[in-house]
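Give me structure tokens for this 128-residue protein.
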Amino acid sequence: MKKTVILLSSISLIVACGNNSSTEGKTTEPTSQEQPAAKEDPEAEKGLNLIAKIYCLTCHQVEVKATGPAYMDVAAKYPNNEQVIDSLSQKIIKGGAGNWGTIPMTPHPSISEDDAKAMVKYVLSLKK
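Here you go.
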């Protein structure tokens, strides 16, 4: 019985924190409705592709708050300048909490600084 509970708990955790790698009826890339096109900026376009590839949309959505803030809300909050791009790219790499509530952002140390900056440029390109 104890082994069954542990097994079911482990499976639940894997499903809850999964990376959308299931191929049954799903694609690994978000639909165009979930990811608006980058505004003719090759760096932002690169960021969009990285966001889809790295499964950022597991915790973030473009227009609505999920576990983390909506990308549109992030774009509305921050100006699009080099200081913000540097700061937010470090937040992607190192993680952190406090700017959007108590739920911490998981660190992503395997993402390069250039890739993180491209991702931030995409998010900031969503500013209306």
